[in-house]
Automatic annotation (TrEMBL), chain A:
Signal peptide: none annotated. NCBIfam families: sufC (TIGR01978). Gene3D superfamilies: P-loop containing nucleotide triphosphate hydrolases (3.40.50.300). It comes from the Bacteria. This is Fe-S cluster assembly ATP-binding protein. Keywords: ATP-binding, Nucleotide-binding. The keyword Nucleotide-binding applies. The keyword Translocase does not apply. InterPro entries: AAA+_ATPase (IPR003593), ABC_transporter-like_ATP-bd (IPR003439), FeS-cluster_ATPase_SufC (IPR010230), P-loop_NTPase (IPR027417). Pfam families: ABC_tran. One of its GO terms (molecular function) is ATP binding. It comes from Marinobacter pelagius.
From TrEMBL, chain B:
It holds the Pfam family SUFBD_core. This is Iron-regulated ABC transporter permease protein SufD. The lineage of its organism: Bacteria, Pseudomonadati, Pseudomonadota, Gammaproteobacteria, Pseudomonadales. SUPFAM superfamilies: Stabilizer of iron transporter SufD (SSF101960). Residues 168-396 form the SUF system FeS cluster assembly SufBD core domain. GO terms for biological process: iron-sulfur cluster assembly. It comes from the Bacteria.
Length: 257, 428
């Protein structure tokens, strides 16, 4: 489904990704782990099409189509979804209006009729229950005043509504307490299907207890330095990033404390 | 040194004589005072950003025809007064008839009413500050008088449609005077529109006198064409516990200028002034507001938002003057501005003059652009870039549009805003 070959990307002239190679097939769940600053979030943003990042070399295809030629909105319509690490607050645009506009943009792209307000309201209420968000959140501004956990649940709600082909989850577990983590994981697991792929980007392996990946990759210094199965994450958990010869400030810090 | 330009004498040759004598006398007297009036220049402080947009030709000095077919066939959910080129059209209007409420054309006043009105007109605006709007007093050919007796309540909103037909160059000078008695209530909507394409000026003055406890809401929609210079002034004086609320939605033109002056003269007075202005192309819009806290224990709340696209230019000048005796004043002024293009310009200036020592006075002004990260977030959900731009721009003013208390006015505003978005954000 997704094929990344020798991907290099930089921001403000500084190279962050230094040759990423990754193949993801439909139905698979991949986890990318790595210390802070390794390029995990950059990879997510580049795949989603953030213009702040410049691709300097390499290629990315989605089902054979050159992804890098597409605008962000076209990538979304082709099935790329990025759950943001820091979802954006947009006061003045209601969550409901935002979600309906997005869903209808997808439907129009697929040649389907737009959903009217009443139809969409019904669907949105169902999905909000699935991620344990009170329907009153639909009336509020997009992420406006939401807690960290509520924002993450709103991201998963969007994924459930938009039904992407490839869902990229950028640090979706960060800032979640154990109950919220369970709700978010249940939502992600509900997304798992044979024709959909999931790419999880995470610092810690605890999310992987809830969403069990098929493959785990370790990203460091802008390259994937090790790939394996689920056991690789457990090994990392036990031994720390230092085990692979990676300097990880956060791990080092927590060890020092 | 070149002498400062003065108002052409042509502008002081008023034609129509269809007013009661007391008003004709007032008009003449006001006209005499304007002989050789200097026109604002770049050096005139309160016109410094706008004087270059002012283009008064001698052709514009003539009055536009006071008869013709008003375009206005629209139904409004309330009473309707139609001004055509500054003159009320009784057959197109629907006047309220109720005890305690007198609403009439200046032309229909008897001598006693006219004399009483002549004494009251032009007492709400600071002449030095409004300059060009003073021309209205020298030129008005009609006007709308609204008198609300104590406790009178106008049961439906009063829509005043100001229409100009710009088939030839000229000017219109519509005028409204509202005398709101104790504890009276009314909602007045002013809608400014135009047809035709010759250069014209609309020079308009609306005055409110609010007695104790009166409660007046004023909505103002400025929507004339690209050929219309609009110079308007609104003066408000409020006595004890009176409340005034205004909602302005303005669309730019070659020159749009509105001066809004509110004087809180009795304790417990309250005003809320909201404004939304959008400009595009080479348009210009200038809002100057003044709130005078004369008496103690008054509240004022002002929120204006400007959006400027293309090479357009918007100006906001908000002055709050808290007089020495106005202790316990509470004033809050906020002006936010959104630039949609590198070529657009917005000038904003809060001015606070505070002479009392026990007051709360807050002000804030910001200028920014659409947030790139918010834009990325929206398009990453498959939303078209144009649509995302519209959502974010609308988000900037939505709060103010939603506060407009009449649905039909909100709808008109939305329709015009959508036209603005269509022209500003092209399909990609």
């Amino acid at each position: 489904m997704l094929s990344i070959k020798n991907l290099h990307a930089s921001v403000e002239g500084k190279e962050i990704l230094k040759g990423i190679n990754l193949e993801i097939k439909a139905g698979e769940v991949h986890a990318i782990m790595g210390p802070n600053g390794s390029g995990k979030s950059t990879l997510s943003q580049v795949l989603a099409g953030n213009e702040a990042f410049e691709v300097t070399e390499g290629e990315v295809t989605l089902n054979g189509e050159n992804l890098l030629d597409l605008e962000t909105e076209e990538r979304a319509r082709e099935g790329i979804f990025l759950a943001f690490q820091y979802p954006v607050e947009i006061p003045g645009v209601s969550n409901l209006q935002f979600l309906r506009t997005a869903v209808n943009a997808m439907r129009t792209h697929r040649g389907e009729e737009e959903m009217n307000a009443a139809e969409f309201m019904k669907l949105a209420k169902e999905v909000s229950k699935q991620v344990d968000l009170d329907p009153s959140f639909l009336k509020r501004g997009v992420n406006e005043g939401f807690s960290g956990g509520e924002k993450k649940r709103n991201e998963i709600m969007q994924a459930l509504l938009l039904q992407p082909k490839l869902a990229i989850l950028d640090e979706t577990d960060s800032g979640l307490d154990i109950d919220a983590l369970k709700v978010v994981s249940d939502g992600v697991n509900a997304l798992r299907s044979e024709d959909r792929a999931i790419l999880m980007v995470t610092h810690y392996q605890r999310l992987l207890n809830h969403i069990v990946p098929d493959y785990v990759h370790v990203l460091a210094g802008g390259r994937i330095i090790k790939s394996g199965g689920r056991e690789l994450a457990l090994e990392l958990e036990e031994k720390g990033y230092g085990w692979l010869g990676i300097k990880d400030e956060e791990t080092a810090d927590s060890a020092a404390n | 040194m070149k002498p400062a330009p003065t108002l052409s004498a042509a502008f002081l040759e008023s034609a129509g004589q269809s007013l009661p004598k007391a008003l004709l006398d007032l008009r003449k007297q006001r006209g005499t005072a304007l002989v050789d009036m200097p026109l604002p220049t770049r050096k005139t402080e309160n016109w410094k950003y706008s004087s270059k947009y002012l283009k008064l030709t001698d052709e514009m000095a003539s009055s536009l025809p006071s008869q013709g077919k008003a375009l206005t066939g629209q139904e409004v959910p309330g009473y309707r007064i139609v001004f055509l080129n500054g003159v009320i059209q009784p057959e197109a209007s629907k006047f309220p008839q109720a005890d305690g409420i007198r609403i009439a054309s200046f032309r229909d006043l008897d001598d006693q009413e006219a004399a009483e009105l002549a004494d009251q007109l032009d007492n709400t605006l600071d002449d030095k500050a409004v300059q060009l709007a003073r021309l209205n007093a020298a030129r008005f050919e009609d006007g709308l008088l609204i008198r609300l007796k104590p406790d009178a309540v106008l049961d439906q909103p009063l829509f005043v449609i100001h229409e100009v037909t710009a088939d030839a160059s000229g000017s219109a000078f519509p005028r409204i005077f509202i005398d709101a008695g104790r504890h009276s209530q009314a909602t007045l909507v002013e809608e400014y529109r135009s047809s035709g394409s010759e250069p014209v000026m609309v020079n308009t003055v609306t005055e409110f006198q609010l007695a104790d406890g009166a409660n007046i809401t004023n909505l103002r929609l400025t929507m004339e064409g690209e050929n219309v210079q609009h110079i308007g002034a609104t003066g408000v004086r409020q006595q004890r516990n009176a409340r005034f609320e205004s909602h302005t939605v303005g669309f730019g033109g070659p020159l749009r200028r509105h001066d809004l002056q509110v004087r809180l003269e009795g304790e417990g007075g309250e005003c809320k002034l909201n404004g939304v202005v959008v400009t595009q192309g080479k348009q210009h819009y200038d809002n100057h507001t003044t709130i005078e806290h004369v008496a103690a224990h008054c509240n004022s709340e002002e929120t204006y938002r400007n959006i400027a696209a293309d090479q357009s230019h918007a100006v906001f000048n908000g002055r709050i003057h808290i007089h020495q005796d106005a202790q316990k004043s509470n004033a809050d002024m906020n002006n936010k501005n959104l630039l949609l293009s590198n070529g657009a310009e917005i000038d904003t200036k809060p001015e606070l003059e505070i002479y009392a020592d026990d007051v709360k006075c807050a002000h804030g002004a910001t200028i920014g652009q659409l947030d790139e990260i918010s834009l990325f977030y929206l398009v990453s959900r498959g939303i078209a870039r144009r649509e995302a731009n519209v959502l974010l721009t609308m988000a900037f003013i939505n709060e103010l549009v939603e506060q407009i208390p009449l649905e039909t006015v909100r709808e008109t505003a939305h329709t015009r805003l959508n036209q603005f978005f269509d022209q500003t954000f092209q399909e990609v």
